Amino acid sequence: MTTHVELRRGAYHDSVSLLQVSRTVAGAPQVEAAQVAMATELNLEVLRGMGFDVPHDAGPNDLVVALRVTDDAAVSSGIAAVDDALRALAAPSGGTGTDDEVPPGTLGSAVRRAGAGLALVSVPGAHAVTETYDAIAAGASVMLFSDNVSVADEVALKDAAEAADVLVMGPDCGTALVGGVALGFANVVAAGPVGIVAASGTGAQQAMCLLDAAGVGVSHCLGVGGRDLKAAVGGRSTRQALRALADDPATEWVLVVSKPPDAAVLDEVRAEADALGLRVHWSTLGAGRPDLTAAVEDALRAEGSSVPDWPAAQADPDEQSLTRGPSLRGLFCGGTLAEEALLLAADALGPVASNLGHEPALGPGLTDPGHVVVDFGADELTRGRAHPMIDPTLRTARIADEAADPTCGVLLLDLVLGHGAHPDPAGELADAVRAARATAHSDGRALPVVVSLTGTDADPQGRERCSDALVAAGASVFLSNAAAARHALAELGAAR
Amino acid sequence: MTAPLHGLLTADPVVATSGVALFADALRDQAVPVTEVGWRPPMPGTEADLARVMADPRREAANATALARMTSAEAVLVDVAPASEALGLERGTFLHAGPPIGWDRASGPLRGALVGAVLLEGLADTPEEAERRLAAGEFDLEPCHHRGAVGPMAGVVSPSMWVYVLRDDVHGNTSWCSLNEGLGKVLRYGAYGPEVVDRLRWMGAVLGPILRQAVRSTGPVDVRAIIAQMLQMGDEGHNRNRAGSLMLLRELLPGMITADAPSSDVGEAVRFSGANEHFFLNLGMPACKLATRAAEGIPGSTVVTTMARNGTDFGIRVSGTGDAWFTGPANTPEGLFLGDYGPDDANPDIGDSAITETGGIGGFAMAAAPAIVRFVGGDVPFALRATRRMYELTVGEHPLFQVPVLGFRGTPVGIDVTKVVRTGELPQINTGMAGRVAGTGQVGAGLVTPPAECFPAALAALAAAVPR
Q: Which helix (H) or strand (E) holds A282?
């Protein structure tokens, strides 16, 4: 067995493309392991964890190629596989293929050339502000997927956008649905009367899927960024979004999905919505407030729609003879879903350690013998890596770790389907669940697994198909994230 | 009232993307028209400066003003006169191309040209003496650009040399440029032998006065109109000036042949001018200087107003940062060589002639001059691509300077520092190559780019100038 590590300076590719390259190369003959990634600190740590020695002077603009192959002779074929896979990325789309065609060099150029009304920015955070100003100046609204944008920059961008009568959706906006088109991570839902304004990506996806299950369609889902309703940002994008939805013939009422807004901002936004004659319902996730599912149910009833039984499928229980660990382990890809689970769990269990900015905070290893909720989509876990909804590697590894940990009493997981997400996430997760339960059972322990599955049957992955695969692997599956969390707490004997 | 957000919620979405390719693919899967940027990180260490400059609320309007001024500047040849008279150039002062430089760091061709000019002015009897006095700092060296003038290659101008005088009455500016000496062993390429100095004496005594009479008798010549026409006749105005030179001669000929001078002198002046296929370059350059000069000093503008080289350093100046130079070591051009010369004989990039690219012609108009590839290397698609690439670096298109093969699209004009830094693409310059050793002359022609570091340095100064 031979390892080969090389650094290619200044060779940039985005993390999702490199994920594809790594997978392709890992599947090549004589290659046992392959990781091709930008040399961010996080990725270097992962590489070291895989047993590769990485040059000390590697920086985030350098590409690392790390291969473990059967023997010395296989190194060159492994590198050739890397080069082939990188070359396959190189062909830029959008050109007409004539010999003197030049692709747009900047986002502003692309917007002007295409007459685009919307720009989608997903470059690394340090560069996102520049791209967004460029798009605004070219006259396009922006879905700003990138995170790591400062509040001051966010405010200035939103002021520039308002002056140009365009909308900044973001930063850190994972989900949008505009004119029937899904941007970023978004589910396929029927068209309908509900306009969603979302300061939360997976929260918006959960709301869209619940509405869809209730037979109520969505006109648009406009992301505004997680901080938009905080005092510092003052609801700048929310107000623009509400004005646009009030003018939109397809939209009859609006659901705002957000963390608890600043009280003064909420008053202003409410007053503005009233003045517009717009019916707005609020789903503001926070301690002592209704969970997302309850908020959607309230809105449905208020609008005269009926509330269905939310889809749920329970696995056969583990045998009574097996012992049970004491602690909840919630491992999430969606930030808002993790937040909601944390709120419900802390209410029932007392302190739950997390990386969600609440006390108690998890340490660097993100482990604790007590109750734990981890958001694998957090900024610090996605630098130079694709979001776990695309690349679940880190969470999958953690599921295996928890299975071997006798303090783990129940695994609470989420899985989010739709455009932008992993093409077959349930297959991979079902394998991990099956393996985890087998590990626990072989140690004489029960390991109930509960999955919050956000999706619709029209999604490319198909919600029912995914649910069946997970139930077959031994997981209980819920559309409502709150219901999933409550079921997990019941498994611990802690439900209220 | 129009729909809010420019009709975002009612129009069929057309999307541009920058970043993760997967999201563009997901849109294509939904049959949405997508234009994808091949995004790469900007030049290293520029993120914060870029964000600051992009956020400058003055930027868009300032760049629009720069473009409007640049493309509305006139360029009319109004006179031909000795530099002492036209520029008030003092005896013992020598202008040169590029950013400021002293004798100690001057390259071979610049030194050679300075030696030749000192001999021409009678300030030394031998090249050795000229060199000694130059090295001792007895003369003042100053960039042409600091006086609003431009000079090709070494760009050395001394008081007794004659210059063209061009006016832009729209913005009230004047620019000047020396008379072209032809090709081969010439002062601007660093040659200073007796034939070089003799030719310069003849140009001052015979050619200059005849051209002055011609300009004064047949009236001002609209140089900008000639540039617009030559681009439609296969010239790009930097390394290919054939059509422009003939059109200029056509304008001047009636006045030259009726000039008050011996017929043998008139004949020689006409023959000399007609034989020189770069006769027009020395008018195209000050015309572009007038354009870029009109765009100088606009607070918040990120448009480049000067690109110039002295054979050692390449320097740029930017509208929003006024007179400050941002320099880096000049690159050596790549291209085709004359005779037995090869890459080792070439001096690093030299001359004020990159003002043509700064003004939207030269390398930026290469698509208009596909025949140039025979002279500078490359193939015809390369020439087309060169111009197309430059649209990605500029703030606009020139309304008068058009490229027939691109459907009469205006040439790319107004290099934007932010776009250079963001894309990592550098302005394309077509150029002649001077010999490395003083006295050699021209050794070839080819393509060159500025050193990248000029642009992050200019960007940092622009960022520092954004009001807090």
A: strand A279-284
